[in-house]
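Team,

Forwarding the record for the chain on the shared tracking sheet. I've put the sequence and predicted structure together so nobody has to dig through attachments.
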Amino acid sequence: MGLIIGNIFLENCVLLSKQSKIYVINLYFFNSYKMKTKKVILTMVFVVIGIFTIKAENVISLSEAIQKKWVKVVLKGTGYVGGLNNSSHQGKCIKIKITNISGIALKIQLKAGQFLQPDDSATQRMLVTNSMMFALNNGAFKNDYITAFCSQMSSGAPEKDLNYAVSSMSRGNIYDLAQIVDKYDFVSNDVQSAIWAFTDNYRPNKLMSADTFENRILNTFLADRNVLLIEPPKQELLLDNDRKSSSSATVNYDLNLGNRYNIQVTVTDENGKIVQTLYPSPKHFEPGNHHLEIKLNSAEIPEGTYMVRLLMNGSINMQKRIKLGNSGR
């Protein structure tokens, strides 16, 4: 484009930065035999000023950089990677490769609260919970991992190398929650429960983070927004053989999990000593329906009264009392 001001012709005005209003301008002076030389010198001066201004001040969001076609971005699911994420749908579960193709240096921000949408509509949309900044010169690229959590609990977990794309920015409670999680760098299962409370109207039984500070912050956030947690009473059920002694007993637990839990079943005697476990160490259970069964008989443990306890993330969730043999009546 061109513009005439007095005897100066402005050609090819290019906006480098809306924030700084820096332009590259080619100046033609009509009555000058050194027109070409002046054009080159003046253009170079403006370009240098523009580049230094961008390095110092210009921060652009990832979504805007993509819209302007200033970057090339590849987002893929990582799948479950031990030591990197808690599962394929939470933690550092999205990998990113970002390349600057703008022709200028950029600082690109991926902000907590950004949604990432999968190619497969049956797979979970992800919510970014830790902000990131990418400072890239023209032509430079960076590989990294994005910390994100599922925001659609009824959909399938992301598979390894599933393609994702930057979608909309979250709003309201979801956005505010993402900022809290980002501020304190929370990464526990309780973050996932809190997100689902807003995205899927999920009501977790309780938040069970071992970090009492994280537990308090997230519980307060939910309570301030009238999200009530459902805390089931500890269940102490008497089996038939509690009224009539038996030499054997079977205890069943049917679970409908809305989150990922570490589960263990223990059998303790009247003194609290563990005499049997269903799993030698806590076992990871993914969301969904699960059936657990533990069988006891007096041939393996002494006659007496026992408590069969179901522990979820280390806390007793349900317990049942049984009697073996003729003792404890």
